[in-house]
Amino acid sequence: MKNRYLIPVLVGVAFIISSCESPAPTELPVDGTPSLTAAPKKSMTIEGVVDITGPIPGFPNLINPECVTVDTETATAHFKNCIVVGTVTGDLTGDVTAILNGRQNLATLAAVARGHFTFDVCHTDFGCGAFEGPFKGESAPGGQGTLRGNGHGTGDFHTLQIRSTFVERGNTEIFDLDGVIF
């Protein structure tokens, strides 16, 4: 009895598999690196600046400063669910909000951080919407930080993703933004 159902199921699976089209392979240049011409129609690199400078030089613009606790014995600041706000300029223009978790050695300014970001931005070719997702990063002694984030789009960006790197300009809370929207 079981065998009489097996044949129609296998025929149905074979039909479904044969009707699915696989995408054409993307050609890579001779050096093996992908080019933007081989990328999807809405893929492009972006550059800009993310400024989270607060009213106190060298500190981010925190909405909730009570989120920072300092251990004086180890000279370490701990950040838990700190809300940081700022602006985005360049290829994307608008606002950034980040929820920051991590710690910083106050003697060396070395730090580790992770959290969640939201860019509420506009782009002249793509429209307006938001990108949101996780980020993580660290700063070396002296305080210059590098963060990396990946986010998904909403609004006009609902089918897009962003992969970005933020490199701090010294210990300024101003980050150069490089990334790709795809």
Key terms:
single chain; 182 residues; mainly beta; AOC barrel-like; eight-stranded antiparallel barrel; 9 strands; 10% helix; elongated
Q: Mind telling me which CATH architecture this is?
A: Beta Barrel
- Show unreliable segments: 1-40
Secondary-structure element series? HEEEEEEEEE
Helix fraction? under 10%
Strands ordered across the widest β-sheet? 1-3-4-5-6-7-8-9
Biggest sheet descriptor:
8 strands, antiparallel, barrel
Overall mean pLDDT: 78
Task: Please provide a written account of the structure.
- By secondary structure, this protein is mainly β.
- The protein has a single domain (38-181), classed as SO1590-like (AOC barrel-like, Beta Barrel).
- It contains one helix and nine strands, in the order H-E-E-E-E-E-E-E-E-E.
- An eight-stranded antiparallel barrel has the order 1-3-4-5-6-7-8-9.
- A hairpin with a 2-residue loop joins strand 3 (76-90) and strand 4 (93-105).
- The longest helix has 18 residues, at 2-19.
- It starts with a helix and ends with a strand.
State the gist of this model.
The chain has one helix at 2-19; strands at 44-51, 68-71, 76-90, 93-105, 111-123, 127-139, 145-155, 161-168, 174-181. With 182 residues, it is mainly β.
How are the elements arranged and paired?
Elements: H1 2-19, E1 44-51, E2 68-71, E3 76-90, E4 93-105, E5 111-123, E6 127-139, E7 145-155, E8 161-168, E9 174-181
Antiparallel strand pairs: 1-3, 1-9, 2-3, 3-4, 4-5, 5-6, 6-7, 7-8, 8-9
